[in-house]
UniProtKB/TrEMBL annotation:
Gene name of the record: purN
Keywords: Purine biosynthesis, Transferase
Site positions per UniProt: Raises pKa of active site His: 144
Coiled-coil residue spans: none
Protein name: Phosphoribosylglycinamide formyltransferase
Function per UniProt: Catalyzes the transfer of a formyl group from 10-formyltetrahydrofolate to 5-phospho-ribosyl-glycinamide (GAR), producing 5-phospho-ribosyl-N-formylglycinamide (FGAR) and tetrahydrofolate.
Pathway: Purine metabolism; IMP biosynthesis via de novo pathway; N(2)-formyl-N(1)-(5-phospho-D-ribosyl)glycinamide from N(1)-(5-phospho-D-ribosyl)glycinamide (10-formyl THF route): step 1/1
Lineage summary: Bacteria, Bacillati, Bacillota, Bacilli, Bacillales
Pfam families listed in its UniProt record: Formyl_trans_N (PF00551)
Length: 200
């Protein structure tokens, strides 16, 4: 089972997936990292893990469709069956999402539909909720709006700062994402409209 990870930044989720692959828990192989920021730390993590990298500068292309066509070619060459977004800070075009419908997943640091978009952790603190969490969902044409696959709650404690809360959320993310990807690799996830079921 081959997958591609798309990321733009630090890469803690990418690294957790690599670790899960190496321990055998992922049940599949990360065939390529796709990164829209050639200088991002995640690119170095991929090189260290011997994962192929397709890094590009969006500015150097006339349109999103132009670089996405190159990405799609890379994925097809490798027989990629699942696209795992892990901090990829760009919306995919409607045609790309349509083409890979049901085969793109994302992780978001809140209990969606609360706090979509950027800085979900800051949004939750500013709102004053007592509970937030992590969502893994299918990607549709919107921003963090696709069908939910799995969620885990994380309590907000008195005195939490963006940093202390982020640390607990990231720990939960890293565990949950590998687990969900392994369900995919085992063919256990099915999508019917907005309804996602996970076979035992
Ligand atoms: C994670 O919090 C993820 O939920 C969000 O972007 C962040 C990426 O962090 N979509 P990292 O690059 O995996 O460390």
């Amino acid at each position: 089972f081959r997958m591609a990870v798309f990321a733009s930044g630090r890469g803690s989720n990418f690294q957790a997936l690599v670790d899960a692959q190496q321990s055998g828990a992922l049940g599949g192989e990360i065939s390529i990292l796709v990164c829209d920021k050639p200088q991002a730390p995640v690119v170095e993590l991929a090189k260290a893990a011997n994962v192929d990298v397709f890094a590009f500068q969006p500015k150097e292309y006339a349109s999103k469709e132009d670089y996405e066509r190159e990405i799609a070619a890379e994925l097809q060459q490798r027989g990629v069956e699942l696209i795992v977004l892990a901090g990829y800070m760009r919306l995919l075009s409607p045609s790309f999402v349509e083409f890979y419908n049901g085969r793109i997943i994302n992780i978001h640091p809140s209990l969606l539909p609360a706090f979509p978009g950027k800085d979900a952790i800051g949004q939750a603190l500013a709102y004053g909720v007592k509970m937030t969490g992590v969502t893994v969902h299918f990607v549709d044409g919107g921003m963090d709006t696709g069908p939910v696959i799995a969620q885990k709650a994380v309590e907000i404690k008195d005195g939490d700062t963006a940093e202390t809360l982020a640390e607990r959320i990231h720990a939960v993310e890293q565990k949950l994402y590998s687990e969900v990807v392994s369900w995919f690799a085992q063919g256990r996830i099915s999508l019917n409209g907005r309804n996602v079921t996970i076979a035992l």
